[in-house]
Amino acid sequence: MSPARKGDDAMDWSGSKSLSRASLVLGTVLLSTVLCAPASGAAPEYTRGDTAADVAAASSQRRCPVVYFDLGETLVHTADDGSTDYRPGAASYLRALRERHIEVGLITNVPSSWGTTDAERAARLRAEVDATWRGPAPFAWEDFGDRVLTPRTESERKPAPVLWQRAKAGSGRCRVVYQAETAEEVTVASSLGFVPYQVGRPHRPAYLPVGLIELLGRRSR
């Protein structure tokens, strides 16, 4: 082997070790984020009169993390021409959550004048997005069900805490995750007991890894 080739191998090996160390550090940071985040609700207190079914039901309820997202520039990108499409990796990420039966929701700002209920405002939001959609596959609205939370008044618009508080209250004993592209929203969500994750940051996964979200359920048992 030539000296030059030996040098190439040394650089390849050094690069591999650096990449492995970086991956290990990233994994440790993400794991710490998940395990150290506050729970969305206190652990249930069982009494002597609780039946096995009661305990099982409460335990099952604690194992169900719900993943909430902002919409614009978190799951959906708006191009310069006004057209919309999934952000890179968003469609496959939602599919992975769906396959693991992990519930998802949206916490997103829209004009409060779009309706008098969340359902009305969500319908208007869907119409607005669908009208400009240019992606090869439609946005997966059906994944979110009735978990699309929008401001009832302009004062409820994020970063006001109301929408996160409503999401948390509606999730029972489930731990709740919030993913968005803005540091301010992620910080507010964290302060309210959500497991936070800021998307779109360099050298990090595009979204909180599904395996870590599943770990939230296992940790709550």
UniProtKB/TrEMBL annotation:
Gene3D superfamilies (alphabetical): HAD superfamily/HAD-like (3.40.50.1000)
Official protein name in the record: Uncharacterized protein
Originating species: Streptomyces echinatus
